[in-house]
Specification:
By secondary structure, this protein is an alpha/beta fold. It has 4 helices and 5 strands, in the order βαβαβαβαβ. It has a single domain, classed as Rossmann fold, CATH 3.40.50. The protein has a 5-stranded parallel β-sheet, sandwiched between helices.
Length: 118
């Protein structure tokens, strides 16, 4: 399973981020062997994703699954949406902040989108 993650630079609630990851992992199928997280930033979001992957690695390995973190530019996630590479897209922001272009691209490509605004 491949999950794209992006947020705003003002987002800082790690508990909300963990909730977003729980929702993404609930979509993980039994036959999925990897859980790949492609983070398009900004830096605060990349740091949260990196920490989550590091903390979750042992638990995932015990279940026979691998978890990987890829820090990528937004254009790479955009490209993966067109070739059906992204299974779920997470957008993290504070209330009343504008959604990114990638949210609209995911919706147009019928990719499930989780918008977490808290």
């Amino acid at each position: 399973m491949i999950v794209g993650v992006q947020g705003t630079s003002s987002f800082a609630d790690y508990n909300v981020f963990l909730r977003a990851m729980a929702v993404a992992m609930s979509n993980l199928k039994q036959d999925d062997k990897t859980f790949d997280l492609y983070s398009a930033g900004p830096g605060n979001i990349n740091a949260m994703v990196s920490e989550f992957v590091n903390l979750s690695e042992r638990g995932m390995k015990a279940r026979g699954k691998k978890i990987k973190y890829h820090m990528v530019p937004p254009s790479e996630i955009d490209e993966k949406m067109y070739v059906a590479g992204i299974d779920y897209f997470v957008f993290l922001s504070n209330p009343n902040e504008q959604k990114s272009k990638l949210v609209y691209q995911a919706e147009q490509n019928q990719i499930e989108v989780g918008i977490f605004q808290y």
